[in-house]
Amino acid sequence: MKTIKILGMGCPSCQATEDVVRQALQQSGKEAAVEKVEDIQEIMKYNVLTTPVLVVDEEIKIKGRVPDVNEVIELL
Amino acid sequence: MHPLRMNPEEARKALENGALLVDVRAYEQIEGYDFVEENKIALPITEFGARYTELPDDRLVIMACSVGVNSLKTAYYLLNMGYTKVANLEGGIEAWEAAGYPVHKNADRPVSSGCCCGIGSEAEETDCCDETQAVEDNLSSGSCCC
Hints:
The complex is a heterodimer. Chain A is of the alpha+beta class. In chain A, 37% of the residues lie in helices and 28% in strands. Chain A has a 4-stranded mixed beta sheet. In chain A, strand 3 and strand 4 form a beta hairpin. In chain A, helix 1 (12-28) packs across helix 3. By secondary structure, chain B is of the alpha/beta class. Chain B has one domain: Oxidized Rhodanese, domain 1. Chain B is built from 7 helices and 7 strands. Chain B has a 5-stranded parallel beta sheet with strand order 1-6-5-2-4, with helices on both faces. In chain B, strands 3-7 form a two-stranded antiparallel ribbon. The radius of gyration of chain B is 15 Å and the shape is globular.
């Protein structure tokens, strides 16, 4: 099972990213551990300046924008 | 390692002693609402990753933005990249002004506080910092770090 982290500080874009991830999991029928990371010190361990960021199995896949559902499904 | 966290008074004193204020807001934001300070440069967060090496590493740099969130990200970024003399202006330009330090406001430019996403002023306005949208999404305006 993959681990998906959503890095962001709680703004609507970050919330939208989580919603997209949940939709992608539902549509694909796959399972993943989803974790929101909102603490700035934790976020900066990934050394990213723009959020939201989607991290799959500790690899940054998307940053600085809200992905679409199909894009996330391909990452699952 | 963490950046120094400075209030406006501490930042002002450091600037008098040779520190450099680095404003990471978008140029449009700066044009509308700016620090009146000689020792400052603009380096927007959208350009930061490509241009951070322009910053001195032998002098204290004080990162600043609207409210101190994006600037804190850039401060950590610099530390991650090997800089050691890094501070963050807590509360950003809004705290600076509230503390009584001078700012320049351009009446022809609306003042936008920006957002913690750091994805540019246009996106901030439409995708992130739209408080109406935030309310529709059942999020309080405080949920955004604008």
